Amino acid sequence: MNDISNIMKVKDGIVGLIVGDALGVPVEFKSGYDLSQNPITKMEGYGTYNQPAGTWSDDSAMTLATMHSIVQKQGIDYEDIMDKFVAWYSEAKYMQGNSTFDCGVTTSSAISRYVGQNTPALESGCKGERDNGNGSLMRVLPLAYVKDIDYETIENVSGLTHAHPRSKIACVLYVEMAKSMLENSGWTMEEHIFSACDKIKEYYKDSPELKHFERIFNNDLEIVSGKGYVISTFEVVVRCLLITENYADAVLEAVNIGIDTDTNAAICGGLAGIYYGFDSIPVDWVNEIDRIDEVLSLCERFEAFCDESQ
Ligand SMILES: [Mg+2]
């Protein structure tokens, strides 16, 4: 039986992600120590990128670009998703203002290969060990809402920019956690997280990459780092979700760990938004997001696509 609640929750996750991103933007690159002296407790403006309060960055923009592509193409079209990433990168589409900021090195390399060298979308992504930043993990949440999404498709969407197997597995694990929250109401946060881990452990049991996820699998997360490595980010996200009991505390915890504040809070906020629901996201924070009406409208159209494809 298809769980209809699956498709009534798009704005929970997507607005959860965007609010987390915007909370982190003004303090990106600040250390955990600095933030412990002066923690973020609300939506603030200016700081790192000198943007007004409620400004989102690449994380939200690439998530919105992916949703827009899926709605327009009524499915997953890798070239079109890349075309929309190009529009974001070069024309600041999907940003609130008229400039793009905060693009990661791996993402910009992949986009340059796609545009400049006419490389097919599925071959544009970077595959090196050093290409395991959190730049695909931060934008794959919409896939959790797509009916019958399979692991190969999630891996391919990651691989448009981040094609190393570690990044791909992280994206699959993240989407599995989100899907668990969408499909299994009444489960605890631990049940969602570790049931998804169990699926990944089984599916990728022969992969040498799996060892990098062991601290997550074992909930061995006393000490985490906010740097932008995909595994570090995932460890921060799981820790923040497990040690807090509401959306606001989870995303503020993620921001105040420091360094890659926006992406850590975006990825955490996506899951916290789904788990606790849209109404749990502080309304003051949502209202600070410029162009939130356009986001909500896209969420509705995306939801309609998921609905029609049931
Ligand atoms: Mg960012």
From TrEMBL:
GO molecular function, one term: metal ion binding
Keyword Secreted: no
Coiled-coil intervals, chain numbering: none
Top-level taxon of origin: Archaea
Residues reported to bind Mg(2+): 57-59, 260, 262-263
Cofactors (names): Mg(2+)
Cofactor, free-text remark: Binds 2 magnesium ions per subunit.
EC number, UniProt record: 3.2.2.24
Enzyme class: hydrolase
InterPro entries according to UniProt: ADP-ribosylglycohydrolase, Ribosyl_crysJ1, Ribosyl_crysJ1_sf
Gene3D superfamilies: ADP-ribosylation/Crystallin J1
Keyword field: Glycosidase, Hydrolase, Magnesium, Metal-binding
Family: Belongs to the ADP-ribosylglycohydrolase family.
Protein name: ADP-ribosyl-[dinitrogen reductase] glycohydrolase
Organism: Methanobrevibacter thaueri
Source taxonomy: Archaea, Methanobacteriati, Methanobacteriota, Methanomada group, Methanobacteria
Gene: draG
